[in-house]
Amino acid sequence: MHRFFVSRDNIKGREAFIDKEEAHHIQKVLRLKEGDRITLFDGQGWEYYAFLQGVRDKKLVAWIEEAQKVDNEPPFRVNLVQGIPKGDKMELIIQKAVELGVYSIYPVLTERTVVTLKGEKETRKVERWRQIALEACKQCRRNIIPEIKPVISLRDMLELIAGKPALMFYENEQYNGIKKVLQENRDKIKEEVFLLVGPEGGFAPGEADLAREKGIILCRLGPRILRTETASLAGISIILYELGDLG
């Protein structure tokens, strides 16, 4: 059954009023008709099983037959702090991180970030990333939409998460592997953990030193140097596996 997003504000009693973009996809792309059954989700944990009623006041309306609270979220929150990479790599990272179960994503500007995002360009980019997160939720059947945060500097981000459970991938870390760190800190990661991944070139030594001062644990992902998009997705997968969500 096809699955679409509907804002909780657009549900009135047993009727769901579907927004313009989703309505276009339903009517013009999929060519669904009155009486066809669909699944809706509101991004806040609820699914609605409905059928299309038709158009009223220029809005596509669906009649809700059943509403169900569906919880398929990890038992703890994994927050990805991602150094913004070049090109469209951030879009891939967001899409796959959402599919894996990440709770939120913080795009950060680091010393080695080469992308320039300011003003209207930044606003459009974040809106695009949020749309990708929504589309990923539709595909993977998540009912909670991970929040894509506004762009923030790494220094400000480190202040924000100081003292909280957090890991930073740093290629020059010689002693701590991610598996060892997770096993030793399992009791501290009961509710959430932050994973910091640099852009191309990783984090600069000064950034790693500052992170260590803020109580963030530096660790290695393995003996090979991975691309930033590979490191992010591998890291999320390892955390969710080691702490009991995947597998």
UniProtKB/TrEMBL annotation:
This is Ribosomal RNA small subunit methyltransferase E. Belongs to the RNA methyltransferase RsmE family. PANTHER family: 16S RRNA (URACIL(1498)-N(3))-METHYLTRANSFERASE, RIBOSOMAL RNA SMALL SUBUNIT METHYLTRANSFERASE E. It comes from Thermosyntropha lipolytica DSM 11003. GO terms for cellular component: cytoplasm. Gene3D superfamilies: 3.40.1280.10. Its EC number is 2.1.1.193. GO terms for molecular function: rRNA (uridine-N3-)-methyltransferase activity. It catalyses: uridine(1498) in 16S rRNA + S-adenosyl-L-methionine = N(3)-methyluridine(1498) in 16S rRNA + S-adenosyl-L-homocysteine + H(+).
